[in-house]
Amino acid sequence: MRKTTPEITIVICDVCGNDDKYSHSHHGGLIIKRDALDFSGAAVADASVKRDLCNACLLRIEKAINNEAGLIKKEKETKE
Ligand SMILES: [Zn+2]
Predict the structure, then answer these.
(1) 35: region left, alpha or beta (phi > 0 left; psi from -120 to 50 alpha)
(2) How far is the CA of 34 from the centre of ligand 1 (A)?
(3) With contact defined as beta carbons under 8 Å apart, do 16 and 53 qualify?
């Protein structure tokens, strides 16, 4: 007899440390792509930020990004 168990991926949140082992909701991640530049402005290294996130942290960080983007947009509109 032969039985194959499917692979299970457990994501441990880089922010709160919770895992999604028993969660049936989403998990995800955040990648901020960024290049480190040398004095002449040439990209010399990957300075990206990558985080695995549980559903709760994913929602909160998404909300924070949207809120901050809204504030930046308002600041720009006020200056114009
Ligand atoms: Zn989390």
Answers:
(1) beta
(2) 23
(3) no
- Which DSSP state fits 39? T
CA distances (Å), origin 32, targets 10, 40, 56, 63, 65:
22, 22, 19, 16, 12
The residue ranges of every structural domain in the chain are: 27-79
Q: What is the pLDDT of residues 28-56, one digit of tens each?
A: 899 999 999 999 999 999 999 999 999 89
Q: Which amino acid belongs to residue 8? A: I
Q: How far is the CA of 22 from the centre of ligand 1 (A)?
A: 14
- Note the pTM of the prediction, 2 decimals: 0.72
